Amino acid sequence: MKNRSEKAALIEQIKEAAGRASFAVVTDFKGMSVEELTGLRVALRAAGGEYHVVKNTLARIALADTDHSAVSPALKNNSAIALGFQDPVGVAKALSDFAKTNNKLEIRMGALDGKAMTAAQVGELAKLPSKEQLLAQALATMNAVPTNFVSLMANMVRPLLYALKALEEKKAA
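The structure assignment produced for this chain is given below.
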């Protein structure tokens, strides 16, 4: 059993992390082994997130004054909190992908920028393209405009150049 100061430090640690996070998801991890939890933590870390297994009461206290207080009702039985700091889609994908291969992980509820999300909405978020993919698509679209413009201008000038070349060859002959 942890003493008061250890609990206070843990609450402060979770509160600080939740304050920085834009995305939080409550999951059920009942029956998962330490190796499975470690694999999930590694996947979440790669996606820009963290995974905390903490007592429900402590988690409720830690999340109380944050944007993610909306997930408090899902904190019951065996709960853990996944926090996303960069791209919420990456964290949602990591959780969804892990849940597909490990049926012991259940997504209960999420919160994105303070707005509550159901487990189905978290699943839908995981289907969206990542931030990098969206940036690549936007860049390709922006790059297409000048490329098409240059092509259009070249197509307008080309017949004139052919006519001038033919005229030059006629005069040379």
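Interim note for the steering committee: The chain has two domains: 4-128, 129-173. The two ends are 103 Å apart (CA to CA).
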